[in-house]
Write a structure and sequence with these properties.
By secondary structure, this protein is α/β, with parallel strands linked by helices. The protein has two domains: 156 residues, 3-Layer(bba) Sandwich (FAD/NAD(P)-binding domain), CATH 3.50.50; 122 residues, Polyamine Oxidase, Chain A, domain 2 (Alpha-Beta Complex). The chain contains eight helices and 20 strands. The strands form five sheets. It has a seven-stranded mixed beta sheet. Strands 9-2-1-13-20-19 form a six-stranded mixed beta sheet, sandwiched between helices. The protein has a three-stranded antiparallel beta sheet with strand order 10-11-12, with no helix packed on it. A hairpin with a 3-residue loop joins β15 and β16. α1 runs parallel beside α8. The chain binds flavin-adenine dinucleotide (FAD). Flavin-adenine dinucleotide binds next to α1, α4, β14, β18 and α8. Flavin-adenine dinucleotide (FAD) binds next to α1, α4, β14, β18 and α8.
């Protein structure tokens, strides 16, 4: 524990950045988190639409395999931050649904962003702040946002961003080149509310042989608003890349048609429709190094892409980055840089 802990700037308030920030704050570090979004969560996102419609348009659910993450999930379960989604998840191919092997699937309550909100509680998070530059000076790291506002100096900088965005921020540090080698695929998401319930005997499906890769009845997840039949459709990586620059208005009808074809159903009237493009959705560094750390520069890099992708990987990567910083700070912090 430090009197007034070393100062840390965490860029990115997704699960990785927040897991890192939370652990550091719990060790007495003086942490500031920056995110360009309106709220924390990054790709664990929930869009709410009046009246009573909610859509997890990014991460759909998560699993917990590593004991460290399983412990965190167990604590969130007790506190009601997450719940198990008991929905029936199938593989859908040629209109035929086959059950997938059962496994605990967890979701944030009342939306996927609940985990990030819980991690962010009591942390200093500067929202709507896109960090344009971060530079190491003799005094420490200086962070400059796109409006020209500065913050710092910080003893440590944590880049908790999708790989291509980490590459942009960190250049010319050698970690930028490493991040640039990890491509991430895009994903078009369509958010739908039907006026009447869509009659299919399952709640989520991995779709094969279709522009779609995943569809889920969002309203089947625990703690979602009752009443409306809300669905999230995800297009596959190839289709999303081919249609990357299409407008949402062009994407929605194409994926609605694909949904009807995949289910073999006439869809009920649509009461709400929207599309969201994730430019960076999934991707993983095959070397799976969990975190990158340069003690001399006081620089850590974390994110799902360093730990196998997905929510669990993001959490483990952020926690590992915090561990490296805590150990380094117990050494000669003042000489870093
Ligand atoms: C469509 C989709 C479906 C998915 N499905 C699943 C699933 O079912 N299960 C699962 O486990 N995982 C899933 N994932 C992956 C999961 O969402 C991610 O692995 C995880 O949320 C990544 O967390 P992160 O903190 O590494 O990155 P992010 O969540 O991307 O966080 C990075 C943050 O950095 C911010 N940022 C970026 N640039 C800047 C900047 N210059 N300045 C300030 N802030 C910046 C962003 O706003 C963002 O909040 C899915 C992802 C998508 C997009």
């Amino acid at each position: 524990m430090h009197e007034r802990g070393p100062r840390v700037a965490v860029v990115g308030a997704g699960v990785a950045g927040l897991a890192c920030a939370r652990a550091l704050a719990d060790h007495g570090f003086d942490v500031t988190v920056f995110d360009k979004g309106r709220g924390p969560g990054g790709r664990t996102a929930t869009r709410r639409v009046d009246p009573g419609l909610a859509f997890d348009h990014g991460a759909q659910y998560f699993t917990a395999r590593h004991p460290d993450f399983a412990r965190a999930v167990a604590a969130w379960l007790v506190r009601g931050v997450v719940a198990e989604w008991g929905g029936r998840v199938v593989k859908l191919e040629g209109g035929v649904a086959t059950d997938t092997p059962p496994q605990p699937r967890y979701v944030g309550v009342p939306g996927m962003a609940a985990v990030a909100a819980d991690l962010a509680a009591t942390l200093a998070v500067r929202r709507a702040t896109r960090v344009a530059r971060a530079a190491r000076t003799p005094a420490g790291w200086q962070v400059v946002d796109e409006a020209g506002g500065g913050a710092g100096p910080f003893d440590f900088l944590v880049a908790a961003l999708p790989a291509p965005q980490a590459a942009e921020l960190l250049a010319p540090h050698p970690f930028a080149a490493e991040a640039a080698c990890t491509p991430m695929t895009p994903c078009w998401a369509v958010l739908l509310a039907f006026a009447d319930r869509l009659d299919v005997p399952w709640d989520g499906a991995f779709v094969h042989g279709s522009p779609l890769s995943w569809v889920a009845r969002n309203s089947s997840k625990p703690g979602r608003p009752g009443g409306a039949d809300c669905w999230v459709l995800h297009a596959g990586a190839g289709w999303s890349a081919a249609h990357l620059e299409d407008s949402p208005d062009a994407v929605v009808p194409l994926l609605l048609y694909a949904f009807a074809a995949a289910t073999g159903r006439t869809l009920p009237p649509v009461a709400y429709r929207a599309a969201h493009r994730w430019r960076y959705s999934l991707g993983a560094d095959p070397a799976a190094r969990t975190t990158l750390f340069d003690a001399a520069a006081g620089l850590a890099v974390c994110g799902d892409w360093l730990a196998g992708g997905r929510v669990e990987g993001a959490f483990l990567s952020g926690a590992a980055a915090a561990g490296r910083i805590v150990r380094a700070a117990d050494g000669p912090v003042a000489s870093a840089g």
